[in-house]
Amino acid sequence: MGEVAESIRGDESEEQRKLALFRARVDKEDPDAK
After folding, report:
1. Tens of each residue's pLDDT in the chain, 34 residues
2. Considering the entire predicted model, what is its pTM?
3. How many Å from the N-terminal Cα to the C-terminal Cα in the chain?
């Protein structure tokens, strides 16, 4: 599934995925960081 998304969207989907993971990690560590 991941490979299919990458072939369609390319680097953009990779950046979005990294950003989503980063935000999720920040929210867990410091919910008030927003």
Report:
1. 456 655 555 677 888 899 999 988 888 877 675 5
2. 0.45
3. 31
Q: Which distant-in-sequence residues (6+ apart) come within 8 Å of 33 by Cβ?
A: 26, 27
**CA–CA distance, 26 with 2 (Å, rounded to integer):** 23
How far is CA 4 from each of CA 8, 12, 16, rounded to the nearest angstrom?
6, 13, 15
What is the residue type of 2? G
List the Cα angle 20/34/12 in 5-degree steps.
25
